[in-house]
Write a structure and sequence with these properties.
Blueprint: E1 23-30, H1 36-43, E2 49-56, H2 64-68, H3 74-79, E3 89-93, H4 95-101, H5 103-113, E4 119-120, H6 122-133, E5 137-142, H7 146-158, E6 162-168, H8 174-177, H9 182-193, E7 200-203, H10 214-221, E8 225-227, H11 228-239
Parallel strand pairs: 1-2, 1-3, 3-4, 5-6, 5-7, 7-8
């Protein structure tokens, strides 16, 4: 004898604005990145703020050629974040590829996929962040090969931020970069930043676990320090209209966007 199925009772419900009622941020993450998502969870852990990820195909070996090939993947990944999500800002999570592809081209792709939504990437975010921090003479730390590091150095110099000291781990594998321990990153940041010719430090690469050492590096150096995920999270929050400060996240997260005025 079979048991009769219970009748399904229709239940009432109400709706609200849903998650991200203050800001919804879209984030394009490389398939090889091991760090960005969990650093963003910590840096954007604010009331009413939600981050939505889309992964894009990339080569685990970082060269100018492999970085350039990501240009074709950007529209695909951006399209996986639907318009009906109502994004307030969107970012691309690769500093080196933004350098090689070009910040302007990355912005164009985002504008085509999500018209009118403010966008950024770690290189653009770093420039804005360093401006907010008043850094003119930069200590640059990267994990990259010399040709990628040189290209990034040139981008900062062209933007009026003089790179006076550069250090690199000389590692091309994104898999290995994600496993470089925070102690090594801290020691390298201090080594690069301790020069009297440096006003502040930028630690490049979204795979480096740098967000957690920012405060300690700043306290040791007495200078502002930021990193790819750190600067990108801050810039996306500010572009999305979130002005909250974040404790234990370094000087940058106490800053607002600077309003540029004509001299």
């Amino acid at each position: 004898m079979s048991k009769q199925d219970a009748r399904i009772k229709r239940l009432n419900f109400t709706t609200d604005a849903g998650a991200g009622d203050r800001a919804r941020i879209g984030l394009l993450v490389l398939e090889s990145d091991q760090t960005m998502e969990w650093e963003f969870r910590a840096l954007t852990d604010l009331p009413g703020v939600s981050v939505y990820h889309s992964r894009l195909a990339n080569d685990v070996t970082v060269t100018p050629e492999t970085l350039g090939r990501m240009e074709a993947e950007l529209p695909i990944a951006a399209g996986l974040l639907p318009d009906y999500m109502g994004l307030n800002a969107i970012g691309y999570g690769c500093t080196s590829a933004s350098t090689i592809i070009g910040e302007e081209r990355v912005a164009e792709i985002f504008e085509e996929a999500h018209p009118g939504v403010p966008s950024t990437n770690p290189l653009t975010a770093a420039k804005v962040a360093l401006g907010a921090l008043g850094v003119k003479r930069l200590g640059l730390l990267t994990p990259y090969s010399p040709e990628v590091t040189d290209a990034m150095q040139a981008k900062f110099n062209t933007a009026g931020i003089d790179v006076t000291v550069v250090g690199s781990f000389y590692e091309q594998s994104d898999l290995v970069v994600g496993k470089i321990d925070p102690k090594s990153i801290l020691q390298a940041a201090i080594s690069v930043g301790q020069s009297p010719d440096v006003d502040g430090v930028f630690i490049s690469c979204t795979s480096l676990r740098a967000a957690g050492i920012i405060e300690q590096a700043e306290q040791t150096l007495g200078k502002p320090v930021t990193a790819s995920n750190h600067a990108l999270a801050w810039h996306l929050l500010r572009l999305a209209g979130i002005e909250d400060t974040v404790d234990n996240a370094g000087q940058l997260f106490r800053e607002q966007l600077r309003v540029l005025t004509d001299a």
